Amino acid sequence: MAIHVWDHRLEYENEREDILDAVDTVFRSDQLILGDSVRGFEAEFAAYHGVAHCVGVDNGTNAVKLGLQALGVGPGDEVITVSNTAAPTVLAIDGAGATPVFVDVHPDTYLMDTGKVAAAITERTKALVPVHLYGQMVDLAPLQELAAAHGLKILEDCAQSHGARQNGRLAGTTGEAGAFSFYPTKVLGAYGDAGGVITSDDEAEANLRRLRYYGMEDRYYVVRTPGHNARLDEVHAEILRRKLRRLDDYIAARRAIAGRYAEALADTDLILPKIAPGNDHVYYLYVVRHPARDEILKALREFDFNFRVSYPWPVHTMTGFAHLGYSTGDLPETEVAAHEIFSLPMYPALPEDLQDKVITTLRKILDRG
Ligand SMILES: *Cc1c(COP(=O)(O)O)cnc(C)c1O
């Protein structure tokens, strides 16, 4: 049986009654779209973060895109982000009508190198989109200083960092807005597509509610364009409400697995995840690094291990983003990391015997040299 980096089926067996009850609750309710479950989840997710608002949307890509539009970002604006991210971060900036501008990542964390941001700021820069990739946060203090000095908005891409903290502050609560994906694999995942934006900015919240609902304020009357149909679905909202109560347990389980990997692999020549000062990592992914990555992955496949690389192609080198004008060589740390990193299986319900199998198999391959 192939071993996957992620698998939802064990979690579903553990939580099946609650998940089915969530579905039943919605199907028996009087409103199937934007009803009590969406409102309830929005209130509870905002409360978890200690912010004023959460607006549920249909996926993480639209959380970033509508989040930017709600902050006034649009055509003619530049938005600074990274190329080592899920392509949707960049598609969302592009989709908002703005121009993505990339800075390189730090070689220890593979996160935005905040020391490189100042040089990328121009008169057209409107916003910064730090991506809290893999489960730990980009150092936000230097970005806040730059944002204050240049009048920029910060939208945090929190799609991989639900519950992560930096000096005690939760991901998504420092910038003007935090965009989340609840794609099933994420630290807080629905059973299909879902997303949300948190903010304490009342105007951004009002904009988001219109943006996700055809640009309407009240039924059938459009007050602004662009408008989208980008609503969070009731069924997923109700499942997310149930799972939010378990979020801290999921994170604890991820940390326990990360601890076992770290201990068992410490004396190998794999480079293990490094945690930046002040960060509490939630281990959405357990990303390791080795110069012979491709040979290791090939050997792992022979043992039926289906490991993944997040991400094998830096966004700025993809043909779909050729219009941005970057070429290979522009972001050296991003490019070398893409050739050397890979992710070990990681999800809260990952059984101990599978963790052990991952460890022993990896050690066998690494010892072979
Ligand atoms: C998953 C992800 C997204 C996109 O979320 P979807 O729900 O798949 O649209 C955006 N940014 C990052 C960093 C992600 O990991």
From TrEMBL:
Keywords per UniProt? Aminotransferase, Pyridoxal phosphate, Transferase
Recorded hits in Pfam families, A to Z, give: DegT_DnrJ_EryC1
Which Gene3D superfamilies does the entry mention? Aspartate Aminotransferase, domain 1, Type I PLP-dependent aspartate aminotransferase-like (Major domain)
Recorded GO MF terms? transaminase activity
Specify the domain of life of the species encoding this protein: Bacteria
Q: Which PANTHER family match?
A: 3-OXO-GLUCOSE-6-PHOSPHATE:GLUTAMATE AMINOTRANSFERASE (PTHR30244:SF36), TRANSAMINASE (PTHR30244)
Family according to the record: Belongs to the DegT/DnrJ/EryC1 family.
This protein is called DegT/DnrJ/EryC1/StrS family aminotransferase
Name the source organism.
Answer: Sphaerisporangium corydalis
